[in-house]
Amino acid sequence: MGTPRCAPLWLWWISLIFLLLRHTLSGFALVEGADSVLTWRYKRELANETGAKTAADMPDEPTLSMRPKTPEELKIPQCEDSTADCAYGGKCVAGPNGYKSCLCPASCPVSIPVSCRAEKHDDYCLSMSDDYREKFLLPEPTCYMGICVCPPMFDPWKMEGSVKLLPFKCDRRELRVQGVALPSDSVYQGTDAMLFCCINMDPRTFVNEDGVDFIQNSSIIREPTSTPYHEIFTDGFEPPRCWSLDIKNAQFSDSGSYLCHVKTVGRHEIPANFTIEFVVKDTAPTNLIGDSAFAVLCEA
């Protein structure tokens, strides 16, 4: 008799619990499936809280450090005149942020067409590589006087073996010179060597044939054996940019400091020097075995 009286009460509790569970599940579904104001605020507050902690621990955000560098950040001079400011065949071009910088044919990678004389499309000279554009915010290659010109390079060029030359630049004010000794800056007496003074741009109209001297020990001026103008300048190929001094049958008098001294012409007189320390060592000892001779190549 007692059970029938209690049945309505249990049914009421079961119905109430069922309704509560249904309401809770509906709420979860709403939060999970919809971008409601509450969930957005929660996400924003959580992000701000996390961001505040990471900002204190890491002042530089990864997104900022990974963005392309501007010409100002790269310390590229702003140009005004293509002829006066840019290297040979260069053009002064405004970039995405309005900053003007020089483009030139010497800095174009092999993926860029050489001639654009027969084409009338502005984008015929294509684009720099994805890797380049991710690193640098500079103007895209463009056609100038029938030749494609490109923004400056930042990776060194290989000359011979492990020797790396300065990357090509397009603004005359970025002129630099580098000295290299081959096969080494330390050779044995009686052997041959070559000293090189190489600049980082096409020398034409800026550094004349006699524009580089090898000054030994601050007093003896030695004229180059060869210059870039002894070679052929061809569109689409890396322009010659090295002056060389041949040292035949090296003697102790050839030892010393060799200053690569560059003289420029035009509006910008840019001082550019580099010192090569060159050493001539005593002849390697020679041992005789029978009728043959061999040199024991060891450090003196």
Automatic annotation (TrEMBL):
Endoplasmic reticulum in keyword set: no
Signal peptide start-end: 1-26
Keyword Signal tagged: yes
Keywords: Signal
Protein name per Swiss-Prot or TrEMBL: Ig-like domain-containing protein
Species annotation: Toxocara canis (Canine roundworm)
Lineage per the UniProt record: Eukaryota, Metazoa, Ecdysozoa, Nematoda, Chromadorea
